[in-house]
Design brief:
By secondary structure, the protein is mainly beta. The chain has one domain (about 5-430). The protein is about 5% helix and about 30% strand. The chain is built from 2 helices and 35 strands. It has helices at about 10-15, 405-410, and strands at about 5, 25, 40, 45, 50-55, 65, 70, 75-80, 85, 90, 95-100, 105, 110-115, 120-125, 130-135, 150-155, 175, 185-190, 200-205, 210-215, 215-220, 220-225, 230-240, 245-250, 255-260, 265-270, 275-285, 295, 315-320, 330-335, 340-345, 355, 370-375, 375-380, 420. The strands form 5 sheets. The protein has a 19-stranded mixed β-sheet that branches. Strands 7-10-13-16-22-24-26-28-30-32 form a 10-stranded parallel β-sheet, with no helix packed on it. Strands 3-4 form a two-stranded antiparallel ribbon. The radius of gyration is 23 Å and the shape is globular. Residues about 1-50 and about 390-400 have low confidence and may be disordered.
């Protein structure tokens, strides 16, 4: 039986002000148990407006703390000595939440951590001590969709328009999926492409995702309108119910991303996303949907495919692995998205390796200015580059077909794409939760992939994990 220590954050703040909880700041009070310039060892100091810590020491320095408040509105520290349990949708508003390396955050059914446009997160783990967000269920019973995941919201531009955003009043150009319409805390977007939503570094997110309806879901990691000062590095999304990582507009970069065993697309972007995606792995194990894709990419799908700012991210060095039973495709670009993709390895999808669909056909005349795929390897897909006799229709096109010839353009010698076996290592064990960890290395020097070629460094070592839980998606 798990031990519950039920603290409301407001109570923790009151305790801190009374000296029961230590504060840390630049030259401020000492941490509880260590002392500092503002206090004595064992009590913590009272100097300087620092970060409020949850009272781990009141639980003997260990145990679990339930977060019962709906909002975090004071700068708050989650300490590695305790495990934190989200009991509902918890919004970080007008405050920063800092999470120490090695901290475990559990999510109950219906919970999520949502950093609003006026909040910030600083979750900087290490390879030795990653920060883990996971299900509050027993490890053997954990399953995709046990909780909602992590949501970051910012004030960068979206392709919904250029209306300025007032995050406090909720007068923004978008309302993020998965949060009830009309809830101002789900509003995001504005005119600041540098908006800093915070830091996620060496972070695992497991068993997350809600699906409220068609095209309305929370993903393992949802990033809406975050700017290029946001840091997303060394992130694993594992066994989520819906997409692994989805970007809604903005310019936030992500690097060293690994998505394993997710129920829908590995990486999804739309609404004007213009960030960079460097060094990434997407590995489908199995699926609860009919056609999950490795990457599913859109601009804005509600009318004008050319609305600005247009989605146009830059992807470099990625390995995308399908399950042959899945009829999805490795990469799908559609409804007006642009983007450059360099150094991909795409294998094992029952559909296409790369498929350009409705609304993107008009970019063919501007190839490669709009969409560029080069230095990439495709192997073992239903069709590496499909012939588009039956692609979805585009209402603006007389005759209906999308008129995009993937085989001709992807096989252009100037693009240096090849249909070749990349020589992947043994990655199959993770599909059944086995060990050792999967080997995503390559032996074909013509292919780059997530490690930049056969001699690249395995950046997944040490901090990733592949638990199976109850059943997976």
């Amino acid at each position: 039986m798990r031990k519950h220590v039920r603290f409301i954050l407001a109570s923790a703040i009151a305790l801190a002000m009374a000296g029961a909880v230590g504060c840390s700041s630049d030259g401020g009070g000492g941490a509880a148990g260590a002392g500092g310039s503002g206090g004595t060892a064992g009590t913590g100091g009272s100097g300087g407006g620092g970060i409020v810590a949850n009272p781990c020491q009141d639980n003997g320095g260990s145990g679990e703390i339930e977060i019962l408040d709906e909002e975090i509105t004071e700068d708050t520290l989650f300490e590695a000595a305790c495990t934190y349990i989200l009991t509902q949708e918890t919004y970080v508003r007008d405050a920063e939440i800092e999470i120490e390396p090695g901290t475990m955050v559990l999510g109950d059914q219906g919970s999520a951590l949502i950093v609003t446009t006026t909040g910030r997160i600083e979750a900087a783990g290490t390879a030795e001590d990653p920060i883990v967000f996971t299900s509050s269920a027993l490890p053997s019973e954990a399953a995709a969709g046990d909780w909602g995941g992590v949501v970051l919201l910012g004030l960068a531009r979206l392709s919904w328009g250029d209306t300025p955003c007032d995050g406090e009043a909720g007068e923004c150009v978008g309302s993020i999926e998965g949060i009830a319409p009309g809830n101002p805390r789900g509003a995001f977007g504005g005119d600041d492409d540098t908006h800093d939503c915070g830091t996620l570094r060496y972070v695992r997110i497991e068993y997350a995702g809600f699906q409220f309806g068609n095209d309305n879901e929370l993903n393992s990691l949802t990033v809406g309108g975050c700017g290029d000062q946001t840091e997303l590095s060394y992130i694993q999304a594992h066994r989520g119910l819906d997409d692994g990582v989805e970007f809604f507009g903005g310019t936030a970069p992500i690097d060293h991303m690994i998505v394993t065993g997710t129920g829908d697309d590995g990486l999804d972007w739309d609404q004007g996303y213009r960030g960079t995606v460097d060094d990434f792995i997407i590995h489908h194990f199995s699926s609860t949907t009919t056609s999950p894709n490795g990457i599913e990419a859109d601009n804005q799908g509600s009318g004008d495919n050319n609305v600005q700012p247009r989605s146009a991210p830059q992807l470099t060095n990625g390995t995308i692995i399908g399950d042959g039973r899945i009829e999805g495709s490795g990469v799908v670009t559609r409804v007006g998205t642009w983007g450059t993709m360099n150094g991909l390895v795409v294998v094992g999808f029952g559909g296409a390796g790369y498929d350009m669909r409705n609304g993107a056909w008009s970019l063919a005349g501007g190839w490669p200015d709009g969409i560029l795929v080069e230095n990439s390897c495709f192997d073992g897909n239903g069709e590496n580059y499909p012939v588009d006799d039956n692609d979805p229709k585009d209402d603006s096109v007389s005759g209906g077909a999308d008129f995009f010839d993937e085989p001709t353009l992807l096989a252009d010698a100037a693009r240096n794409n090849v249909e070749a076996d990349p020589g992947l290592g043994d990655f199959s064990t993770a599909a059944t939760g086995g060990s050792p960890a999967p080997d995503y290395s390559l032996s074909n020097a013509s292919c780059l992939g997530a490690f930049g070629g056969p001699s690249g460094t395995d950046w997944t070592a040490g901090w990733t994990a592949y638990p199976e839980g109850a059943a997976g998606p």
